[in-house]
Amino acid sequence: MRSLLLRLYGVFTTVVQPLVRRKLRRRAQAEPGYGVAVEERFGYYDEATTGQAQCWVHAVSLGETRAAAILIAELRRQYPGVPILLTHGTATGREEGAKLLEPGDTQVWQPWDTPGAVGRFLDRFQPRIGVLMETEVWPEMTAACAERRIPLVLANARLNEKSLAAAERLAWLARPAYSALTAVWAQTEADAHRLVSLGAKVAGIYGNVKFDATPDARQLTAAASLRERLPKPMVVLASSRDGEERMLLEVLKRFGATSPVPPEQGAIRSISKRVHDVQWMIVPRHPQRFDEVAALIEAEGFAVARRSAAGQPSEAEIWLGDSLGEMALYYGLADVALLGGSFEPLGGQNLIEPAACGCPVVMGPSTFNFAEAAQLSLAAGASLRVEGMEQAVTAALKLVENPERRATMAQAALAFSSSNRGAAERTAAAVLAIAQAAQPVTAKGEPVEEGGEPARAEPTLD
């Protein structure tokens, strides 16, 4: 029996659907991906969109999709041919997720959290198990899966203090949602404690599946070949967020990167030469900002060379990494990486990826999204923490000028990455064990099998 509060929540999400549609139309003007298959978000599907008795994996955005890619690969290794239903909430997530599909897989949008949309989604796909990646827990979806006895799990789970505080303010929704999950596998002990405080059934602390990612060997080989031809060492601001590119450019300008420094300004002239002796590169986190960042670089007085443009960029330009799926190439080129998302109060981006590429990292003060990984990285000697962008640039210049320390940090990064692997294998085994034991039911409480009829055979995932 649903609570009155949950029913009122369902009424609210239904009533605001026109606003959601309007928001999607606005987003589609800047990112056309948001205009694709909009009706899927409300539980309406083309006749060709099929796929029942699948392992459903939900990866809301780009970062979660990259984590899901690692888990899906391990699921396929442990259970070859397992059909995957993949859902997303953002255009970048869906674009990245399309690369993971194999014959028999299905990809649609995450349904908006109304009783109608969620019900139509579950009726159409009848997943054997649902795997939510990292943070996405919706009240209606968890309630509907519990009613149908569809196991819904939270994998690679993380919950920082800020998100916990927000959930506690809406405890009447959050606690029933988290408690309805079949199992939760946390990244860290701190995440586990926070999740338990919301009523989640934490079944294990497995670590972060992103440690199990293998950098693209072809990209690393291409990077090694290109590095041999680079006249300067490279520092990359990787996965940068809004505001951080301007911070870097202003520091470089202040250090004399755009104009000669008079001889009498000895100290500044010295650092100006050091700045000019480095090739600087910016790789924005979100592709919809590529053009915006390119315009910003030019407005700040720098020439910009874009990865997407043909031709060999000149030394004097700021390089712009305006491509998706090439982070291994960028980290392979870089002597030092400045960690995006850590210089604004945004919690930092993934620092596991540069570690796997053997790239030393300089991070800012904000790393709450990867708190334990940041601490482990610092303890291993794979990274440095600074107070702000000016200190980051200074630290990067010192590392560039100290090849022995840089090599030591690179080896520490590789060791840090390899020593924390294994989460994907453990998580996949746990997902398959729960799926094999599951027997979903219809909305009316009747057992179902592939095709939607009352069950007469064993579950698909045996």
TrEMBL record:
GO terms for biological process: lipid A biosynthetic process; lipopolysaccharide core region biosynthetic process. It is an enzyme of class 2 (transferase). Its EC number is 2.4.99.12. It catalyses: lipid IVA (E. coli) + CMP-3-deoxy-beta-D-manno-octulosonate = alpha-Kdo-(2->6)-lipid IVA (E. coli) + CMP + H(+). The active site is at E64 (proton acceptor). Pathway: Bacterial outer membrane biogenesis; LPS core biosynthesis. GO terms for cellular component: plasma membrane. Gene3D superfamilies: 3-Deoxy-D-manno-octulosonic-acid transferase, N-terminal domain, Glycogen Phosphorylase B. Residues 38-213 form the 3-deoxy-D-manno-octulosonic-acid transferase N-terminal domain. One of its GO terms (molecular function) is Kdo transferase activity. Keywords: Cell membrane, Glycosyltransferase, Lipopolysaccharide biosynthesis, Membrane, Transferase. Involved in lipopolysaccharide (LPS) biosynthesis. Catalyzes the transfer of 3-deoxy-D-manno-octulosonate (Kdo) residue(s) from CMP-Kdo to lipid IV(A), the tetraacyldisaccharide-1,4'-bisphosphate precursor of lipid A. This is 3-deoxy-D-manno-octulosonic acid transferase. The lineage of its organism: Bacteria, Pseudomonadati, Pseudomonadota, Betaproteobacteria, Burkholderiales.
